[in-house]
Structure formats: structure tokens, C-alpha cells
Amino acid sequence: MTESEPLVLEERRGGVVLLTLNRPERHHALSAALNAALDDAFSRAADDPEVACVILTGSGEKAFCAGGDMLEMSGVETQERPRRTSSAIARPASMPMPVIAAVNGYCYGGGARLAIACDIRLAAENATFRLPGAEYGLVVAAATLPRLVGAERAKELIFTARKFTAAEAHAYGLVTEVYPQAELLPAAWALAETIASHSAAAVRETKRVIDAATLSAEASAMEDEANRRLRGSPEQVDRFRDATRRVTGR
């Protein structure tokens, strides 16, 4: 990506918007700047009454989103941070229209939370997933993963922080379909266009009802509160710095 290219690319076809994370040199790790750009892109789609469905993916073939920017979060690198407190990671769940994640490559940590917050997940065969919160001293996706894979599998994946493949994600119920890399985006477009061809009002109301039946605001608040207590503790800081050195060498 050159400095002139936006951090989030936007493409529109009829009632479908494709949002593409565009920070390939860091595997689309969510820096403050990328978080702000993605949140703004979601806001534009949410405010447009003609948008019936959103697709979210990462540019290139290596990564959907590798999670939070570890160098920025650990203070190794300092960047001018946009003035906002909202996080784009949870934003897909509050969008009025469906959001489809087209997961291509790494889908780790905050990137996995971002995909889990989407309504439907499709994956390329090379996609890999990991929820490393327990390793880093934080709670990641405990409020949202169980509705997709069940409580026991969610505990196993979060407690162990192990990496798992697209095929495993499909078997667990985290993704609905797995495609060869070249077929992933065409499949996402086709699915989104089918959704967009139906009653937008009915689809939006259906999303609202299903989420009310399966998402727990209390559990999400508990996860947020737990992380407020854990983040910044001596153990959490040491664990995150060790992980940053292992991942980045810095």
C-alpha cells in the first residue's frame, strides 16, 4: 500500500458495498488509524438507505485481519491516534443490514472478533483462525463465540488459544462455507446480491430478531468489564510484551 491509498477500500455494486482492509504490510492489523477508517466506512454504509448488504475482507491473499497492531498497542511504535473511543471490531453486529465476512488468510485475535461479529462468515481454504486472548492476559470473544460453536468448543478454542484451519472452522460452525481462494469473493458477492434482492426491511428485522434471540448484552458487558480489570495489570503487560517480541521480533 502506498501512502496515498486509503486504509479501507470501498466498492459499490447496486445495494452491496465491499469494504476491504488495506494495510497489507501489517496483515491488516488494526491500528488506531485503521480502526477509525473502518468505523467511518461502516457508518457511511449504515447511513445509506440503499445499502442492503456489506461484505468485509482483506486485500491480498495472506490476511483478513491479524488482530490489533501489537507494536502500537505495546508502545514500541507511537502513532498519532484519531480522537475516538469507538471500536470497529464490534461494529458489524450493530449494523442494520447483514455483514458478510470473506475471510482470506490470517484471522487472529481482534480480527477473529471482527469476523465473529459479522452475520455470515465465508472462508478461503488458506484461512486460519486464532483467539490468543488467554495467552495475552485478556478475554477475547467469550461473549460471542459460544452462539456459533457452542459453549464447550468455545471454551476449548479460547482456553488453549490454538490455531485452527478453515476446514476446522467449518466443522465447528464458525464459517458456513469454504472456497478456493479465487472463488471466495465471487461467492461473497453472489450471496450478498441474493440477500440484497429480497425485502431490505424484512432482512433487517430478521437480523434484529435473531440477534435478540442469540446475543447477550449482559455477557458482552461482562467481557468488557473483565478486560478493563485485566488490561494493564503487571501480568497482562508482561504477557503482551512477550507475545509482541515473539510475533514481531521487537
Describe the structure.
The structure is a single chain. The chain is an alpha/beta fold and 250 residues long. It is built from 12 helices and 10 strands. The chain has a single domain (8-183, 199-248), classed as 2-enoyl-CoA Hydratase, Chain A, domain 1 (Alpha-Beta Complex), CATH 3.90.226. 47% of the residues lie in helices and 17% in strands.
Largest sheet: 6 strands, mixed
- Give the number of DSSP strands: 10
Report the order of strands and helices. Answer: EEHEEHHEEHEEHHHEHEHHHH
The low-confidence runs, each spanning 5 or more residues with pLDDT under 50, are none
| CATH class division | Alpha Beta
How would you name the CATH homologous superfamily? 2-enoyl-CoA Hydratase, Chain A, domain 1
CA-to-CA gap between the ends?
Answer: 22 Å
Number of domains: 1
Average pLDDT metric? 94
User: How much helix is in the residues?
Assistant: 40-55%
Shape: globular
CATH architecture: Alpha-Beta Complex
User: Which topology does CATH recognise?
Assistant: 2-enoyl-CoA Hydratase, Chain A, domain 1
Strand ordering within the main sheet: 1-2-3-5-7-10
What's the Cα radius of gyration? 17 Å
Structural class: alpha/beta
**Count the helices. How many?**
12
How much of the sequence lies in strands comes to 15-25%
Concise synopsis of the structure shown:
The protein has helices at 32-47, 70-74, 91-94, 110-117, 133-136, 146-149, 151-160, 166-172, 181-196, 200-214, 217-230, 234-248, and strands at 8-13, 16-21, 53-58, 63-65, 99-103, 106-108, 120-124, 128-130, 164-165, 177-179. It is an alpha/beta fold and 250 residues long.
